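REVIEWER CHECKLIST
Item 1: Sequence provided? yes
Item 2: Single chain? yes
Item 3: Sequence as submitted:
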Amino acid sequence: MIETPAALAAYADALRAGSGPVAVDAERASGYRYGQRAYLVQLRRAGTGTGLVDPVPLGDLSAVQDAIGDEEWVLHAASQDLPCLAEVGMVPARIFDTELAARLAGLPRVGLGAVVESLLGYSLQKGHSAADWSTRPLPEEWLVYAALDVEVLVDLRDALAAILEEQGKTEWARQEFAAVLAAGPPAPKQDPWRRTSGVHGLRNRRQLGMLRSLWQARDDLARRRDVAPGRVLPDSAMVSAVQADPQTEAALLELPVFRGRANRKLVGTWFGALTRGRALSDDELPPHSRPGDGPPPANRWADRDPAAATRLAAARTALAELSQKHAVPVENVLSPDLVRRLMWAPPEPRDPGTIAAALRAGGAREWQVELTRDLLTDAATRA
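Item 4: Structure as written out by the authors:
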């Protein structure tokens, strides 16, 4: 483990002296800690070897960033790791995403272990992907597992790059990788409390207001304790409490989960949140559903706009055929949400130029525009 400034500086010097792309990975503590910070960063470069860097005591890993410079990073499912790496001062100029490359290459399974076994013939050690990486000291077998994640990434990159070149998809991949970098960190979710498991079992706005209040109390506590919210209070317990609508703390303590020692100590917090939600005025209550800026669910189109349903069916059929022809998953050929938006409200006039402009405005890459523009124009003019 590299966990002192001196050791980090020495490894940064070794990285700088290495050659070629740099394999990068990060381990988080999802399900254990609040947020998605990195608790271990793994790197490997030819001529350098593998480094396991502990960002907890170090905080800033910009020395590694400076050593890598503009060299290409090789990651698997880059969008998962880039935000937490940016938090510690590591932002790539160029990437090669082996998971995304595997999708474009038409591989049937795109998990790291499956792709490595398929293309390189190795079986990666399994078993610690869902571990609590905030644990200190990290067990030796966990460190071995973490090192293996970058051990063969550059070899895997070369194998995938050769396949993409053979299939004529190198430029497709370049545009996709650039889009991942340009996307930046995900925007904060609107009304995240609506993602509570079981929320659809609540019947009215009053119950939604109580759930929102309880969710906010749980989130505040989880953030202060740096614990995953679900470990503070499960979603199912929150929904059950709202449905039971206990009128006293004693009644709340009769519910499952709330009987436990930890929640008995917090009963005032949970009951207070329920009480605040129950006391909201009608104007303060959340609506049944969050207003959306997109089209309605596709299963309602036939009733609400039969012409749009016809257009969507034609677009989906054409895209499925295109997906099969190029051996690229249909969701990678074009975002399903963008397809729905385009078929619900096609631009006018409905010609290849306006369709292409709408695709670009919706975030489609040039290779996607060229591939889908004509077939989507045809679908848009069906009705």
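Item 5: Key structural point noted by reviewer: The beta strands are 19-27, 40-46, 49-53, 72-75, 94-97.
Item 6: Recommendation: ____
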